[in-house]
Amino acid sequence: MAQTKSKGKLAQDYLVMILGTALMSAGVYFFKIPNGFSTGGVSGLSTLLGTLTPVSAPTWISIFNVALLIIGFIFLGRSTGVRTVFCSLLYSGITQALEFLVPLKAPLTDQPLLELIYAMLLTSIGSAMIFFRQGSSGGTDIIALIIKKYARINVGKALLCTDALIAVSSFFVFGVRTGLFSLLGLFSKAFLVDGIIESLDSCKCFMIVTSKPDEIIDFILHRLNHSATLLEAKGAYSHDNKYLVYTVCRRIEAIRLQREIKQVDPGAFITITTSSQIIGRGFREV
Fold this sequence. Notes:
The structure is a single chain. With 286 residues, the protein is α+β, with helices and mostly antiparallel strands. It folds into 2 domains: 2-200, no CATH class; 203-275, Alpha-Beta Plaits (2-Layer Sandwich). It contains 9 helices and 4 strands; from the N terminus they run αααααααβαββαβ. It has helices at residues 2-35, 41-52, 57-101, 112-132, 140-151, 155-174, 176-200, 213-222, 251-264; strands spanning 203-210, 229-234, 241-250, 269-275. Strand 2 and strand 3 (241-250) form a beta hairpin. The relative contact order is 0.12. The model has no long low-confidence stretch (mean pLDDT 80).
């Protein structure tokens, strides 16, 4: 049973990483490269070099990713290394496939701010989905994860440190307007990635005052596969004997738990809060 759950979790991880990589590739190819947005990362550096050399930006992406993959295996370990290899090769493959299937000679529109917004949204959501599943898309993401591991700062700020120099270089290659757009994209991505990761990782904390704790705890233990803390309590106004059930669950499970509580004990008093830092068995490891 445990092995089946483990395989299911692994399959889910890779499915999320595939979707995240596809979103990121689309954002880079359709919006960043045609506009010259150099918001950092391998894609930003490749955009610069694709303009300065005969080699295309998607080809530069593949070259840098292969070199940085070796560094990832050395510093991040096998688990993250394998996922990074997978996402990095998929990222390079999708980008080069798009170059072959949908060749672009100019931006899709004449609205650079609109295209910058889509570039940042797609790449930030994609990166966050990959980071959330303990992977990376390669490139400077690897450097960001190494900084996070040894300096203990969050991923968004680590990305900001590694990408700032590349973004500033766009002033000299593409001009002031594109350079300003690149810097705007760099800062927005740094905050977007952390915000999206926090949103994806958020959980719901339940404090339930009830007179029927057994049925609620049975649902939590056997249907949600979580645990709970049970405390005896007494109503300050009614002086009735009650029980306080404390538990945490994923956002998608919170709706089921709320519905179950309503059916078991319609008079239950429920307090629900949101937390992005749940550490312990079944959630995030210490």
